[in-house]
Design brief:
The chain is of the alpha/beta class. The protein has five helices and nine strands, in the order βαβββαβαββββαα. Strands 3-4-2-1-5-9-6 form a seven-stranded mixed sheet, with helices on both faces. A two-stranded antiparallel ribbon has the order 7-8. The chain is globular.
Length: 177
């Protein structure tokens, strides 16, 4: 089972430095949004493969889609560039998928350190439903790439524009009455 971390970042100056800073030890694909092209890389770091690409287009949803389309891992983790993984993250994720072999996605407790406090979103083991899935951030989700890819899953990056248009349309309809 190959684990791959899909990282979204902006204005990255070194793929290798970001990989080290995040304490990554598995395969990783870094999508850099920047006007300064770092080029495309693919290189071995110990037993893992680091890949990176720079795109001029902006938007975290677009960045995540770019990474998802180019991912190769059996299990993928979404990540932001300010995360630092615990040393044992690979074994934690693999053990969870071994314990739940039918799971397409598993939500992990990603601790958020903010204003001197630690916030934990995942309180207990249980099934994630459509009605409670939005309380978890994207970086909490891991997934079996082939299962998610076969369902043509993608991250929305026009959501705000669509909502603004719908609100404008609703506002115009309300004025008409």
């Amino acid at each position: 089972m190959i684990l791959e971390v899909l990282v979204s970042t902006m204005k990255c100056t070194s793929y290798k430095e970001l990989y080290k800073k995040m304490n990554l030890t598995t395969d990783a694909f870094i999508v850099n949004q920047s006007d300064n092209d770092l080029g495309t890389i693919k290189e071995k770091i110990k037993e893992s493969v680091l890949k990176g690409m720079t795109f001029c287009e902006k938007g975290v949803g677009l960045s995540r889609n770019m990474a998802l389309m180019r991912a190769n891992g059996d299990i993928c983790l979404m990540a932001d560039d300010d995360m630092v993984y615990v040393d044992s993250y690979e074994s934690i994720v693999k053990r969870a998928y071994s314990n739940y072999p039918d799971a397409d996605m598993i939500v992990f407790n990603v601790r958020i350190h903010q204003n001197g406090k630690t916030i934990e979103k995942v309180k207990k083991n249980g099934r994630v439903h459509l009605w409670n899935a939005l309380k978890y951030g994207t970086v909490c989700f891991s997934f079996r790439r082939k299962n998610v890819w076969s369902k043509e899953f993608h991250f929305l990056y026009y959501l705000v524009v669509e909502l603004e248009m719908d609100l404008e349309r609703i506002h115009c309809l309300l004025r008409m009455y």
